[in-house]
Amino acid sequence: MENLLDGWGLTVATFSPMVGVAVMLLIPRDQEDRHKLVALVTSLWVALVSVLLLIEFDIGHTDRLQFAVDKVWIDVISSHYSLGIDGISLPLILLTVLIVPLCIVYSWNHFPEPHNPKAFLILILVLETGMVGTFAAQDLVLFFVFFELVLLPMFFMIAVWGGPNRRYASLKFFLFTLFGSALMLVSFLALFFLTGAESFVFTDLADAVAAHGVSRTAQLWIFGGMMLGFGIKVPMFPFHTWLPDAHTEAPTVGSVILAAVLLKLGTYGFIRIAIPILPEAAVEWAPWIGMLAVIGIIYGALSCLAQTDMKRLIAFSSVAHMGFVMLGISTLTDFGINAAVMGMVAHGLITGMLFFLAGSVKERYHTLEISRLGGLLVQAPRMGWIFGLCVMASLGLPGLAGFWGEFPAILSAYSPANGVPVETFRTFMVIAAVGTVLAAGYLLWLLQRIAFGTPPEEFADDPHITDTSREEWIAWAPMLALIVAIGVYPNLVFRLSDGAVDASLHECLTVNASELTADQAEALGCADVYNISVGDGHGGDADHAAAGG
Amino acid sequence: MTELLTLAASTATGLPLGITEGGSWLLRNAWLIPFLPGLSFVGILFFGKRMPRGGSELGVAFVGLAFVLSLLTAAAWIDHRDNFEGEEVHRAVAVAVAEHGGESAEGHADEGESAEGHVPGHPSLGVHNTVTWFEMNDVAFTVGTLVDGPAVMMLVVVTLVSLLVHVYSTEYVAGDRRYTHFFAFLSLFSASMLLLVVSENTLQLLVSWELVGVCSFVLIGHWWEEKPNSDAALKAFLTNRVGDIGLIIGVAILFFTVGSALPGQFGSFSIAETNALAGTGQLSHTALVVASCCLMAAVMSKSGQFLLHTWLPDAMAGPTPVSALIHAATMVVAGVFMIARMYGVFFEGFSIGGSSINLMALIGGITTLIGACLAFVQRDIKKVLAYSTISQLGYMVMALGVGAWTAALFHLFTHAFFKACLFLGAGSAAHAVHSFDMKSDMGGLRKVMPHTYRTFVIGSIALAGLPPLAGFWSKDEIFVGTGGWGLFGGTGGNGAYTFMLVMGVTTAALTAAYMTRCVYLTFFGEFRGHGTPHESGPRIVVPLWILAGLAIVAGFGNLPKGLPLVPESLQERFGHFVEPVASYFPGISHGTPSWSLATASTLVVLSGIAVAGWYYFVKVEAASKAAGESLTELPDGLTTKYPLARMGHTFLVQKYYLDHLYTDVIAGGTKGPVAAAAYKIDQDVIDGVVNAAGENAVKAGNLVYHRFDQLVVDGIVNNSGRASSGAGGELRKIQTGKVQDYAAILFASAMVLAGVLIVIV
Amino acid sequence: MSVELLTLAFERPPIDWHAFAPEITLLSVGALITLVDIVFLEKARPYTAALAGLGVLATLIPILTLALDGADRTMFGGAYVVDDFALVTKAIFLLSGYVVILLSTNYVAEGDYWENEYYGLLLASLMGMVMMASSRDLISIFVALELLSIPAYLMVAWRKSDLRSNESGLKYYLMGVFASAVMLYGMSLLFGVAGSTQLTHIAEALNGAGSSVSVITMGIVFIVAGFAFKVSAAPFHTWAPDVYVGAPTPVTAFLAVASKAAGFVALLQLVYVGFYMRPEVFEPLIWILAAVSMTVGNLIALRQTNLVRLMAYSGVAQTGFIIAPLAVAGHSGAIGDQALSATLTYLAVYAAMNLGAFAVIITLARRSGSAEIESFAGAFHYAPAMTVAMTIFFGSLAGIPPLGGWFAKFEVFRVLATAGEPWGYALAVVAAVNTVIALYYYAAVLLKMWAEDAPEGDHLPVPFTPSLTSALAICGGVTLLFGVVPQVVARFTHVSLLALGS
Amino acid sequence: MLLNQFLLLAAALFAIGVYGVLARRNGVLVLMSIELILNAVNINLVAFSAVRETVDGEIFALFIIAVAAAEVGVGLAMVLLLYRNRRSIDLTEIDLLRG
């Protein structure tokens, strides 16, 4: 088993959905039950493979690439078919393979208009391949291909099964993302050629950057390009405007996948590619990323307060939450990036759940207009409480998953990595902390208006408004359980991510400047951006003093 | 002696933390106490609806068990405090120790003196027990228990009040549609509160801090069908969140500041380490000041201190048992407890012990006065008690601010009993009359509700602070602790905070007066409501009596040193067992009790009672008789709610009664315009600020969203799209369809390109 | 010198029959079709299409044998060369030609016009292309160009009684002739500088000549302009939309793919073999053409309502992408090689995806009789397979992985970035921005097909025909294959012209 | 050699031809103008060929003459076709296709 997993595990996990797609293509469109079954079995099979991977995963060496495959793929451009997972990818892959079957279960009996389960499920499975592949890819070109692979299915999911304004929304989503990735591609290529790396494999590139020393200016430009590409996907302010539209119009399952997994592709890109390969540029960009992150936090929250549509509100809350993730990343510390990984998983579960709930509310009330809703707790008490729990999780209540993404991110901003301006980040910390209040504000306000009070007259005796159905329970229970489990025992994620995050950060970023002797500093040979003075220890002391003050 | 030991230890084996990993089983396994109600929460959640009594039996049983365990733990602690001899935990610290050596020696000189009373060799080590929660960057984040005096005291108080409230609630909320939920969240609250109390590190503290907040949110909004209730719940949660900004930032600052003093670790949440390092002066003073201010913000919100207190009266929208448990006895004192827990930080950060007035003492002082004034003008009995709670919490914070640590915690201890007693009594009365409005729906209840009446009066006297009831002793200790009493023998202590003493004593008078008013309005006169009220059942009355009993006797727990007729072994027992004498606790000095101060404060209280009593029991009673109905104030008195509208009338009245009501000038004056104005400020300005902040946030949100997001950010994108499309439209016009135009373009392009290239090449 | 040349001219040059086998096969089939037409008249009608198709496939056989043989064959003193480049491009032409025949079968059979002429003309035009791939001499390039163009003029005007077809034929003809006249003028200037029509000699002359810089520049610009017309690069693209719409749709596909590819091939040969030593002239020229083509093509395409017309403008934009690598080709030999293979890769992928898109348009337009975008609305509901196919082709044209187009675009970006020159990066950024603009109209069409309901709720299924289906299958398969395993295409397009040129 | 004169002649012819193509409305005249351009090319080629003492230019010119004949044949056919369908060969009138 182990050997088989070692060589084929990731490939199987990545491409099994395509096998499912192939089977479904052969089944006529009107045999809906068979389609559902094939899709579910496929996604469960992928989940099973992933769980086996988790079991075989060497927890002691999360920093090491495991189940790695490395074959030449496109010889002319030195691109490899290189897959592998470490502690950063694994939680995200698990999140993905969890969400997909749940989405399939959730839509079991109510596919959005215009129905057509065959096409809908095929798109979901294609998406799964893209998402898993992105998290597993270890080669820049391969990563790019998978990164883009998710575009079309999501585009059509929104465009065909979406709400009334779906054409505009889907197109916007598509254009934004492609714009980012086009520039991102240029950056990738520039990186490859300026470094003269052997191949597009991440480690080769990182080594090449370290060895050949790409000029600072070039690094900055390349990082900027990647930032644009990943930042749009995240989405970072001011590239976020596609998100509310896409979420609002997307069918429930689309929103869930979009929120739970797709947004993570961007942040994952930062953690996996931009920062490890270009640490020096990262240091110089960090304050800007941090600034956009906190602007996103406040801005997203303020926008939430102005919303009248439940789904749109949740969508804007994603902007704020991903701001926390980005803040964690921008500190360039082990702590901050761990927080980001946790934030990604937590946001995936929580916002995914919130979108599920919004979908179920929509299905019962046929509207998401907040002012028309109310008294959910009276008419569907279980759903109301689940909603309450998710809201609490989303606003970062300790004991639930959201807290572990938010609090460590704020914490890490107090003491960012070497070379990152400390005072600036402390300001960010305070702003981000204010953001938590706003988050509580809009979320509780939402809870109050949706769940509390008495049902409005138009829905008071509506027989359609029933409590949580069986499919909903099946789809939600695992997510709720995980929200609580991770909240109580965050080590579930941290244990996986910590080693890998630590290994992904450049030594000069993480070394404690105040404890460094002159010799050690010299031996490290850090560039000036890290602000580690070589020769005398005073620079470090000054920094330390600043940290103390 | 201790001083030498400390110094030697810090150079040889690192910094002593004042904690031990040993101790009796009970002390090491205090996690069981929060665990039990936690279990009950899960149990009620999943099985409550299917149980005969809707899950309440689970709650009562588990909390009862926790109470028993707490008592046993307390017993174990009493033994441990004096008899434990075990190894103390030391922590290696950064090289910077030597530089600050001198300072720390000074700091400990005080401690040495003050700690002389304790027997050397019994270092009163806190019992520390942790497990790793998660690990990051080679730093283990732990969760665990730190059991010492304050923790044990809180365990007992919380479990006891919680148990009584559980029992009380089985009758009070009987028949409620969410009976099961109510008990589930009571249990969850108890668990969270107990977790907070035993927290070993600030992260755990933060977690439980938020958890009690959310329980409070759920319970305040228990009857969420009515909007005011959910509004109150939201307000409570949001106000607390504002304070939590401070907590988060403060904790973060401390985390890294401590980390900078610990080699090979970038941070630490450990409370013992933080305090110990702060106490030895190894942490940057600036960082401590900032951290203290930030944490103070959290205290202000959680413990209803002035500026962020407005949520607490609104929180009375919740069921009365909840108000008693959460908003009087336990959760609201979390802030006070947090200061007590992190005293090393605050002591250094606010330089407590000098005589300069610090932020904490000032906020406490202001709060205590403001709260007391506001309590005068309430019609709602629970709001009277709520403002009273604010005022009493102000006492505690003020006490901590002046260095009277033990007094503050002792007051916390006694206050928990008499205030819970009062709340539950109020609940009992309200249960009978189905209203909380003293003026329109109460009055004369002493005849029909004798038990409630008696316990309420006992609680009131304890609150007012008449000897020998509990409130007197703890209040007196606070006065002593201010060190501001210079007459007939000084009181010493950590400094001379005369200003705080004045504030405290003024409040004592006000407290006595408003409680007299409250008692009169509720229990005297004639019944003004509807229906026939009758005494509540045993499940309400028994807890009332237990609490009343405690309100009488609790004060004896800490009889002042040197009190005649009392054996020395019974003096200052509370202080002895509760106040830590360990490296994680700063060396504080205690004031000397003074007969003159005690006498003076008693007189002040009596005069407060007398003035209010005379007004109500004499004047109002007489006016009622004259009017033939039960009045709540003099028909032409000063207690008009809108002084401006009746200014002329009031002016006349004042003049007319000036000779009769000579003391009313003070009492009535305060009660009338000042209090009304204060209330107005409270409602309009401070609350207004909070509400306006909320509204403005929404407005800002609207602005940002509609003006900026939709127009500018989105606009840029859409407009660039539109511009592209427009450009496309313009370019399209080239395509005339005429072949010769095309040929012209072709040729012209070729010529232009050739020309340009010829020039540049 | 002239005496020697004259004596040489009278000797029969040695002819490598193997090298000429593809041309000969194609010529024979063309002749055969004409013969069959003359002899059997109407009776031959059902068979001509099959015959033409088989003939094209048969032509691939000698190409295969030549490829296996592997040796470069140079004839007529270097005027006609069969090397890897020639073989690969010939294969691209022939395969595109074959797909066009598949596309034409039903269209032509259902028209009221004489069928056999059509295939004869098609094969003649293909013949010109195949020749073009081997031409390394101004004369042979000119002759090949005319051989492929003149039949194409006629094919465009093939629907004789249709005014639009007439109009587009005339326009194409006039523009084509005018462009080639201008090009010839440029050629004459270069001939004047070099004294020889052979590209290799011209290259040597250009390398040395210092005096007549402006003449050289003008010559190069005029020649490039002539071929820029052929490949419909802006601002020489104006004919394309009108002609595309007016011509029979299969012919449009042919023009958009095969004829355009031939223009590129000629351009590549000229640049690599002839002008390579003059990067200061051709690089900025190509840069401008590429940038303008992408931008103008995409911007105008945004406003189109007719799908074929949209395809024309999209073709203009794609042209910009295809020639973009040439803008840095002169940077160094290595970059030059990479630019060549990038362009060829793009060409191969472009042929597959563009023909595929036309196949879908032809199929769906058979149902509605219109190529207006509106008439494609709701196709997903009555022709899901077609819609998916269209998604694959348009997605590929937009460059979305894992469809073939991504690798083509990737190669372009790669070359532009590799050069490490500021203008290379600048063009890459222009290209990146244009990718997004292009996406807009591709996506808009797809949205129309997927997300809207059919006009008047008409959900009748689309009639399938075997030839169209197989054309779709070929194009779709190739597009996907190139995207998932780009190595396949990269393997073939990794050729060099420079070994000969310098 | 009188190369420059020939080149100038060719350039003049080229310019006249271009003018004709762009300015004449009659399709046939446009065709004639194109022939002018081609002849300009031929003059160039022959002149250069003479100067360079090679025959390549002459051969090229012969090819051009031959191909031009074919071209004109096709062109006249098209103009004829157009005339048949529209009764006009005014190029400025054929703009059915545009945009």
If you had to describe this structure to a student in words, what would you say it looks like?
Chain A folds into two domains: 2-510, no CATH class; 513-548, no CATH class. Helices cover 73% and strands 3% of the residues of chain A. Chain A is built from 23 helices and two strands. A two-stranded antiparallel ribbon of chain A has the order 1-2. In chain A, a hairpin with a 4-residue loop joins β1 and β2 (79-85). In chain A, α2 (32-56) packs parallel to α4, α4 runs antiparallel to α6 (151-161) and α5 (140-149) runs antiparallel to α7. The longest helix of chain A is centred in the middle third of the chain and has 32 residues, at 334-365. The radius of gyration of chain A is 23 Å and the shape is globular. Residues 535-549 of chain A have low confidence and may be disordered. The longest helix of chain B has 69 residues, at 664-732. Chain B has helices at residues 2-12, 25-28, 32-47, 56-83, 97-114, 149-172, 179-197, 202-220, 227-261, 271-279, 285-302, 311-314, 320-329, 334-341, 343-349, 359-375, 381-401, 405-433, 438-441, 445-448, 450-464, 470-482, 498-523, 538-553, 573-578, 595-627, 647-657, 664-732, 739-760, and strands at residues 15-16, 19-20, 90-91, 126-136, 139-147. Residues 1-12, 95-121 and 638-672 of chain B have low confidence and may be disordered. Chain B has a domain at 667-735. A three-stranded mixed β-sheet of chain B has the order 2-4-5. Chain B has a two-stranded antiparallel ribbon with strand order 1-3. Chain B has 29 helices and five strands. In chain B, 60% of the residues are buried. Chain C has helices spanning 2-10, 17-40, 45-69, 84-110, 115-134, 138-156, 163-194, 199-208, 213-230, 239-246, 249-274, 279-301, 307-323, 333-368, 379-382, 384-398, 404-418, 422-451, 466-484, 487-493, 498-501; strands spanning 73-75, 80-82. The model of chain C has no long low-confidence stretch (mean pLDDT 87). Chain C has a domain at 278-502. Chain C has a two-stranded antiparallel sheet with strand order 1-2. Chain C is globular. Chain D has one domain (3-88): Helix Hairpins (Orthogonal Bundle), CATH 1.10.287.3510. The longest helix of chain D has 31 residues, at 56-86. In chain D, α1 (3-23) packs antiparallel against α2 (27-52) and α2 (27-52) runs antiparallel to α3 (56-86). Helix content of chain D is 79%, strand content 0%. Chains A and B meet through α7, α12, α14, α17 and α18 of A and β4, α8, α9 and α28 of B.
